[in-house]
Amino acid sequence: MTDERQAVAPRLTERTPSMSGEELARTLVPPRQFDTASFDSYRPDRDYPSQGEALAKIRAFAEGWKPAKAGGFFGRGKKTPVAKPGIYLDGGFGVGKTHLLAALWHAAPGQKYFGTFIEYTALIGALGYANAVQLFSGAKFIAIDEFELDDPGDTMLMTRFLGELVAKGTRLAATSNTPPNALGEGRFAASDFLREIQAIADRFDIVRIDGLDFRRRDLEGHAVAFETDAALADAVDARLAAGESITFDDFGSLVQHLGTIHPSRYVKLIEGVDVIALGDVAPFSNQTDALRFVAFVDRVYDAQIRVLASGTPLDGVFAGDMMEGGYRKKYLRAVSRLIASASL
């Protein structure tokens, strides 16, 4: 990349976003590809009956927001079993868990939030625990996509946080997202989830969803990369001329810049951007940087932003030892999303 090229397109490294707690909370809505998600638009795969069963259970959970109907002699109906305040969808990639979670969010009344496990823990870290509890108190419903168990500290933090909100009347729904090529696919997450959340474990109904990734994406594929920075710069110029909102950053500089911004504000960092171009992409040597980039990729994917890059294909930035370590699940998800973002 030349300085002349950099002067044409704005850079993400020139942005230093700030957001109040209320602004952060307002970002907790389903990704835009799920703006119209509903129970009716979910299409269960008939080859996997658990998908239809999950849809029925999610519909039943949503009924809990409706007023109880009077019935029986003198308006006294039979008592119905008290429903648990939480539901947990357990399964692999691409079986519709996020669709169902978003549909449930759309069906929920009043104050409600939708975010990933990482988004909630980042927001709690940014606001402080007491302030976060105060901000979310009164919520009718909280949806947690991709509940993660990689960090015991974060898991127990969320356990305590959700426990306080449930005690105040909040209903919950969560998903796991275990790669289909992982040993014990899906079930490992559910058992660990139950063990970790301890005090509130009995408040969740566990719903298993089996099936194939509807995207049929090859997780062993590769993200497309430009052979040279000059070729990437030409592509950036072409998109600028077409009126697209595109940023152009050196990969190393962006990674360094991400370390100066709280992950809860990454959503603001990419606001209004259609395409992100990254030059001189290289594998990570530092796991802290790699995990920050994973959080950034999640926000980019949710916003459906196209990513162009030169250098190492983006799905190859996580070194072999990282892919075999304790954060393997996070890196596999990021690889899947990077492949998708490079082909949007």
TrEMBL record:
One of its GO terms (molecular function) is ATP hydrolysis activity. Keywords: ATP-binding, Cell cycle, Cell division, Nucleotide-binding. Residues 1-27 are annotated as: Disordered. Pfam families: AFG1_ATPase. InterPro entries: ATPase_AFG1-like, P-loop_NTPase. GO terms for biological process: cell division. GO terms for cellular component: cytoplasm. NCBIfam families: ZapE. This is Cell division protein ZapE. It comes from Herbiconiux oxytropis. The gene is zapE.
